[in-house]
Automatic annotation (TrEMBL):
<dbReference type="InterPro" id="IPR027417">
    <property type="entry name" value="P-loop_NTPase"/>
</dbReference>
<dbReference type="GO" id="GO:0005886">
    <property type="term" value="C:plasma membrane"/>
</dbReference>
<keyword id="KW-0046">Antibiotic resistance</keyword>
<keyword id="KW-0547">Nucleotide-binding</keyword>
<keyword id="KW-0472">Membrane</keyword>
<dbReference type="GO" id="GO:0046677">
    <property type="term" value="P:response to antibiotic"/>
</dbReference>
<keyword id="KW-1003">Cell membrane</keyword>
<dbReference type="Pfam" id="PF00005">
    <property type="entry name" value="ABC_tran"/>
</dbReference>
<keyword id="KW-0067">ATP-binding</keyword>
<comment type="similarity">
    <text>Belongs to the ABC transporter superfamily.</text>
</comment>
<dbReference type="InterPro" id="IPR017871">
    <property type="entry name" value="ABC_transporter-like_CS"/>
</dbReference>
<dbReference type="InterPro" id="IPR050763">
    <property type="entry name" value="ABC_transporter_ATP-binding"/>
</dbReference>
<keyword id="KW-1278">Translocase</keyword>
<protein>
    <submittedName>
        <fullName>Lipooligosaccharide transport system ATP-binding protein</fullName>
    </submittedName>
</protein>
<dbReference type="GO" id="GO:0016887">
    <property type="term" value="F:ATP hydrolysis activity"/>
</dbReference>
<feature type="domain" description="ABC transporter">
    <location>
        <begin position="7"/>
        <end position="237"/>
    </location>
</feature>
<dbReference type="InterPro" id="IPR003439">
    <property type="entry name" value="ABC_transporter-like_ATP-bd"/>
</dbReference>
Length: 311
């Protein structure tokens, strides 16, 4: 498997009646890679993840996971996967350690091996001191770390993470990122969906942006920024916004490569923020506040998928 993709999809389609959730996508995920899916609600991310997890059958196309056919070899594939769902589904009646030991037994591990792996993983996610306690008193971040530990108990070849840090405070998110980064260092292949652009930049070697069931962009976070955005973004606020936003946006045309008027500010996408500010001053424009920042994956995401809220 070293020279073959762990996930291989060609022309992958998923339909629900007349609705096409995934519309003919191609993708490869290499061993040891951290691969991400980005996209607005309804883009097809979850449907794709469910097909990769072999809990939803593709409508059309080819999908091979770990060198096996996802349609015919589902049980064998699932035995080698680790899954961290978006919502924690830990057993509140069991202790922290028992949640791992019981889950490990489903994979045919002996009691002794199950306990050994449970203790090792609890130390890895920094929950060793909570091993004998119940799940319910744990914080949200602790529960997510326990869910990730449970996903690792069968020593999987591939770990699927659906929105792994949703709802966590910044400290808990950063601790979880550090644990996931250590998994990547161990050579574990990670596939994740996330709505946090900074999370995708931190964790993903490569990612795809999905919209309307299709892949609209693919590459490393840095290559996507270089392709679809600019080096810097100038954020300007003017008195009288949002009413005057379109007028100022028109006055800023030509300062950068793209001008994006928002209700509370105007974004100007430029290669050189200082040069752009000099030009803005030369044109006699007087913003009430100015921020020059580097372009981010969020700029790419909004450029490719739009700013309209999708329910």
């Amino acid at each position: 498997m070293a020279d073959q993709p762990l996930i291989y999809a060609r022309g992958l389609v998923k339909r629900f009646g007349e609705f096409t959730a995934v519309n003919g996508i191609d993708l490869d995920v290499a061993p040891g890679e951290a691969f991400g899916f980005l996209g607005p609600n309804g883009a097809g991310k979850s449907s794709t993840m469910r097909m990769i997890g072999c809990v939803s059958t593709p409508t059309a196309g080819e999908l091979r996971i770990l060198g096996m056919d996802a349609v015919h070899d589902g049980p064998r594939i699932r035995a080698r996967l680790g899954v961290c769902p978006q919502l924690d589904n830990l057993d509140p009646d069991l202790t922290v350690r028992e949640n791992l030991v019981t889950y490990a037994r489903y994979f045919g591990l002996s009691r002794a091996e199950s306990r050994r792996r449970a203790d090792e993983l609890l130390e890895f996610v920094q929950l060793g001191d909570r091993a004998g306690g119940k799940v319910e008193p744990l914080s949200g971040g602790m529960k997510r770390r326990l869910t990730i530990a449970r996903a690792m108990v069968n020593d999987p070849d591939l770990v699927l993470l659906d929105e792994p840090t949703t709802g966590l405070d910044p400290q808990a998110r950063h601790l979880l990122w550090e644990r996931l980064f250590r998994l990547k260092q161990r050579g574990t292949t990670l596939v994740l969906t996330t709505h946090y652009m900074d999370e995708a930049e931190q964790l993903c070697d490569r990612l795809v942006v999905m919209d309307g069931g299709r892949i609209v962009a693919e590459g490393s976070p840095r290559s996507l920024i270089e392709t679809y955005s600019t080096a810097e973004v100038v954020e300007l606020r003017f008195p009288g916004m949002p009413e005057v936003g379109p007028r100022y946006a028109a006055a800023l045309e030509g300062v950068g490569k793209r001008v994006d008027p928002l209700p509370d500010r105007v974004l100007v996408y430029v290669d050189d923020g200082d040069a752009a500010l000099a030009e803005i001053q030369r044109r006699g424009l007087e913003p009430t506040s100015v921020l020059v920042r580097r372009s981010t994956l969020e700029d790419v995401f909004l450029h490719l998928t739009g700013r309209t809220l999708v329910d």
